[in-house]
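Hi team,

Below is the intake form for DNA damage-binding protein 1 from Caenorhabditis angaria. Please confirm the fields before the structure is written into the shared record.

FORM ID: S-0412
PROTEIN: DNA damage-binding protein 1
ORGANISM: Caenorhabditis angaria
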Amino acid sequence: MSLSYIVSAKKSTVISKTEVGNFTDPKNLNLILNRGNRLDVQLLTPEGLKSVCEIPVYGRITNLQLFRPKNAETDYLIVLTEKLQMAVLAYENSKIVTKAAGNIADRVGRLTDYGTIITVHKSGLIAVRLYDGTLKLVEWEKHSDLKHFNVRFDSINVIDVKFMETKDEIYRMAYISEDNQGRHLRVVDLGMNDKEFRAFSSQENISNDASFIIPVPQPIGGVIVLGMDTILYHPDDRRNPVSCPVSNNTSFTAYSKVDVEGNRYLLSDNKGRLLMLLLNVDDSIREMRVEHLGLTSTADTVKYLDNAVAFIGSRLGDSQLIRLLDSPNPDGSFVEILETYVNIGPIRDMIHVETEGQTQLITVSGAHKDGSLRVVRNGVGIDESNNADCPGVENIFVLRYKSELDNYVIASTDFQTHCIKVVEDDLTAGGLLDFNENLPTIFAGCLFKNAELVVQVTKNGVQLMKEGKTSVFWRPESQELITKAAANVLHGQIVIAAKDELYYLRCLEDGDSLEIQEISKRVMSDEISCVDISNEKDDGSKEANFVVVTLWNSFKLESLTITDLVTRMEAFLPTKVVARSVIATYIDGINYLLVALGDGVLLYYTHDLQNAQLGEVKRTSVGTRPPSMRRIWTNRRQHVFVCSDRPVIVFSHNRKLVFSNVNLKLVNAICSINSSHFRDSLVLADKTSIIFGTIDDIQKIHVRTYPMGESVRRIAHQKSTGTYAVLSTREDVGGVVSTSASTTAVCKSGYEKKAQDESSAPAVSEISSLMILDQHTFKVQHTYFFEEREVSISVISGQLGQDPKFYYIVGTSIINPEETESKQGKLIVFQVDPEDRSKLRFISQKEIRGTPYSINILNGKLLVAINSAVRMFEWDPDTGLRHECASFNNITALSVKVMGDQILVADLMRSMKLLTYRSMEGTLDEVAKESNCMWMAASDFITAEKVIGAELQHNLFVCEVDKTRAAADDSRYPLEAIGFFYLGEMVNVMRRCSLVTPPDDSLIQVSQPIMFGTVDGSIGLVVQIDEKWKKLLLNVEKAIADSIKNCLQIDHSTYRQFSMKKRVEPATGFVDGDLIESILDIERSAALQILSRVPASGDGIPTDPAEILKIIEDLSRIH
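The structure came back. Fields below:
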């Protein structure tokens, strides 16, 4: 039985909770971000936010709260998880210290529907609203378990509760309660002796949507209550309250105190508006007013930092660091966005697409005005800004001749050289001094800081040129042709390879003459295949002090001192394939030697320069043709670019090399360029042209955003027409011009809304639409608007029956307010004109009885989950869709997946079942069913008889058809659960795909990859690993879990155990890849020490810690 290896390809990006305070140091201000199962501690600096540390948490974090204990110099942090594990954390000596921890769950009690709330008294007493009708009070002492007890509210439903700031040690609290008459504000004093509340004051029937209580600091005191139409101030001395109106339907989402006195507060609402609440204070609050500052992402949390800088944390859009302006900018906003933090959550749908040789995921993300499409790649993209036709270029060099900026591009083919002058964005052919354009150029550059000397290396020799002076020429005394060259241009150093001869040259300017000095020469034991020069930190501003060469027939790698070309280190390459490129570089504090072989394999070693030794060789595939390597600079950092038919960029993450794919099919040559027009850019050559462009931020997973400005629901791709179909919903307000994507289409069709009577109040309605997007530009080509009360639900692209045409099929539901479940819907067939993508043809329509939650295609027939049934439809080009057969016995069929003739149905409440389509009989028969009650969120096939599901309480489980047990009378087999795992996030979508091709040289092989997207914006990967590795991986998981203690002070097995309201199962059938791969982030010596505790796991399974570490590194390369 195989093992499911689960790992994060991209970790959670949603930020729903934040805290601000002096956590790491009394003098430093920290912003702490909740990122699902980890805490991100940031430091506020003049340059912006700087990461201090990331704290893994064994649980889904629901609440954070900073507070300052008595006699403490820094703030402590309270963390509470979904499973009600609580910890009090401090930061001491650059480490996280757990002051107290424990589980605060009760055996009985109903968890509140209004969410968990934490409030802390200045004495350090912690109050938590967990269960209906009660408040839990938590007392803590350092290095001990938490003690807790309950105090009963007068009301069952409590919306918000906060400790009030008082002048003495009174435990005074304010809370909003709700009953049949409305919402009310209660102020009570807590008696710690009798553990009861005593009424202090109250205010009945406040705003029906009052949701937040803001304690006002002393000496003012009291609380502010935020409602949809009114903001209320309630004093704590029984004086008259003060209120101010707000615009209708302002649903507040977050607030933050701006100044210590509590005179100003930042407020955010569900429309993304940022507001300032200003208090007019005398001895008490006399007046309040609200000012509109501008628009931001829809905020779940707002935190004012310092110096008019604030942080907007968002669940529906990107989080932002903003500055508040004294005067409005040209668009009237008082908000300036300083930095954006990408959030791809919540992921509502996701598809896997291959375009131009690049594998990518397209996610449907966000909601409302923050709705967007996100292109997720394992690698980086290059955005083209200019190009010029120039076929056959094999080498490119950039020169900054007599300039601070680059102004020449030298493009060399196999037969000649092109000198291209760069003036702004204009590229013109033009000679440069005595440059030889009749031969291919092996190297070219401008020497020294003044860049007045130009050097060109061709097969015939080395030419040194300067304006007004006689050029000088050097060639090997043996007259051998030059094959390779490497240089340090700032110091005039050049190393030349001519067959088996190696030369070290210095270029000089002596008065009125130029000179090329031959410093040293050496005849190698074999012909030289490639050469590079470098120094300890691969710093081009300092002189190179060593040379690296590889040899042809002996397959040898040698490092030599540059001055005398004496060998310091030599090693035989583990191959019989000739090396074609070599680079000695320094990345993230480590020296590396990279060797590219003729078969597309890249070898890489750590390089100990002091002891002249190489570390263990590792390898990766970078294509199928001979690659070449060049150093490039982006954002003032140096990386290595591998040119091939599968180009990659080499960079470091956590001191480990990462090979990131580039969104290009072929790169022959590349060079960095920084000209007056092409700032911090790249110039590269493919088969036919020279391309100028900028590179995305270099990271393992790259995300590109295409804002939609409305809620996007589903997406499908049609390769034949090069389009995407996107289902969306936007709010239409009468008289207001919308700027959302669906309204910007080249062509529009479908339902036309009637003009509204100008005398009536603006009507608000929801408009559903189908958008057709160009797959390259993501521009909306056509929008089809559905009728009023018709909501688009599902979409798929494919061929139906024997019809060769490709169609988009959309499922819609007719919503009637008086119905609890839709009883009408449609299946609509569209066709995109392959010649003109702006034309969308309405082909056919089939009315159905219910909501089409999911659509799939099985053997050319349409399979649709409609309410409680799964129905099959046949297609006829003349008559349209015809119902063929159905399967019932569901509560609500949420999704249908297909593998061969097998159908996987995920039910709202009844877990999963397998159907098979019998074409001869024309029936859908149930073959297996999981008998437990599971509220499903997503599912997919692993194999035809093994499936994976995600349920609403953030768990994953795997089921397999158990054919060892007799089938029931109706020929059904049990679908037996064989794997359980607590993920801690809700999965919305699963797809059988992968962003990365598994490395060929990996010792451990994986299969059946499934990627999933979550509400929290994470993308995960589940792969199957052969059973022979099961014991090893579980032993490794246990060894790491036993060695790395978590801040909650609970076991890893407790964290990952499958947990539902009335069911708990130990984590089985899964191995936690995030935990296993976390060992790669610690020092190698410490990692090896941990792995030395792993017991033997069977014959033929590695026991050496170094070999086990290599297996973990191989696993980290599958995502």
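SUMMARY LINE: The helical segments are 1030-1043, 1052-1056, 1073-1077, 1084-1091, 1105-1116.

Thanks, M.
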